[in-house]
């Protein structure tokens, strides 16, 4: 029975994620905004650090990469629940016979796809602008695994809190305040892994294995807490909406 429930949740996750990605492919609002922001950051890096010595580039470029992805990730997460908020369909989403973990999985997948698209622009761009950042022999497979695992950890945490703040005013500021402290461990581990990959360090896979373990824990915890966070955010929003007319009515009286 548990296995059937898992299969159902995975199927629902796939259906919801496919629907969100199909809408994004039609509108290209989130992808275009995130990619454009990525290109702007890359251009700023190129202009600001054009005179950086080749000896400093292997240590500086990983930081540039993950700072850029952290900002792009925050921008993506502020928009990942935007369609539901603008169409006021959160109540319908909560009333639908859909596993809450499937909703979390779908939004996590969309966020991860957008981050990976931006990373596909950012990584080659940084290596092109700063050719001294990598040494001969660095592995594209290791770099791909580093970016994928780092973005997955960031998305696992961010999707959870984006759901809770999607109903709130000023969510952009609140999300940034909550997001960056909690994702700092994943970002730091990803930065160290990127440095090891670019320097062809033999211990790169060791830290990648640790990041993968952290990602699994974050996804499990995020899926377990998602329903309470999403429902709690919706409840706070509805109470605020009911309190608003009452307060206006009291003032008018």
Could you give the topology of this structure?
Elements: H1 2-27, H2 29-48, H3 57-77, H4 82-87, H5 90-95, H6 100-129, H7 140-165, H8 171-198, H9 204-252
Helix pairs in contact: 1-6, 2-3, 2-6, 3-6, 3-7, 3-8, 6-7, 6-9, 7-8, 7-9, 8-9
Short description:
This protein is mainly alpha-helical. The chain contains 9 helices and no strands. The radius of gyration is 20 Å and the shape is globular.
What does this structure look like?
With 253 residues, the chain is mainly alpha-helical. The protein has one domain. 84% of the residues lie in helices and 0% in strands. It has helices at residues 2-27, 29-48, 57-77, 82-87, 90-95, 100-129, 140-165, 171-198, 204-252. The protein is globular and about 55 Å long. It starts with a helix and ends with a helix. The model is unreliable at 238-253 (pLDDT under 50).
């Amino acid at each position: 029975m548990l296995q059937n429930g898992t299969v159902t949740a995975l199927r629902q996750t796939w259906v919801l994620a496919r629907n969100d990605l199909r809408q994004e492919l039609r509108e290209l609002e989130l992808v275009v905004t995130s990619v454009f922001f990525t290109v702007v950051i890359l251009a700023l890096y190129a202009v600001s650090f054009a005179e950086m010595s080749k000896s400093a580039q292997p240590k500086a470029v990983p930081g540039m990469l993950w700072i850029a992805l952290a900002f792009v990730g925050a921008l993506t997460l502020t928009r990942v629940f935007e369609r539901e908020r603008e169409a006021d369909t959160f109540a319908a989403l909560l009333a639908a016979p859909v596993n809450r973990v499937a909703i979390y999985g779908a939004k996590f997948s969309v966020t991860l796809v957008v981050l990976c698209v931006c990373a596909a622009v950012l990584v080659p761009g940084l290596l092109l602008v700063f050719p001294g950042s990598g040494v001969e022999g660095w592995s594209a497979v290791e770099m791909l695994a580093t970016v994928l695992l780092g973005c997955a950890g960031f998305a696992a945490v961010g999707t959870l809190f984006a759901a809770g703040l999607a109903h709130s005013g000023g969510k952009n500021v609140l999300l940034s305040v909550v997001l960056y402290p909690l994702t700092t461990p994943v970002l730091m581990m990803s930065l160290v892994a990127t440095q090891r990959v670019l320097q062809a360090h033999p211990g790169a896979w060791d830290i990648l294995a640790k990041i993968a373990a952290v990602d699994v824990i974050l996804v499990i915890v995020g899926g377990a807490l998602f329903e309470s966070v999403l429902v709690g955010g919706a409840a706070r929003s509805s109470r605020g909406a009911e309190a608003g007319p009452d307060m206006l009515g009291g003032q008018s009286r």
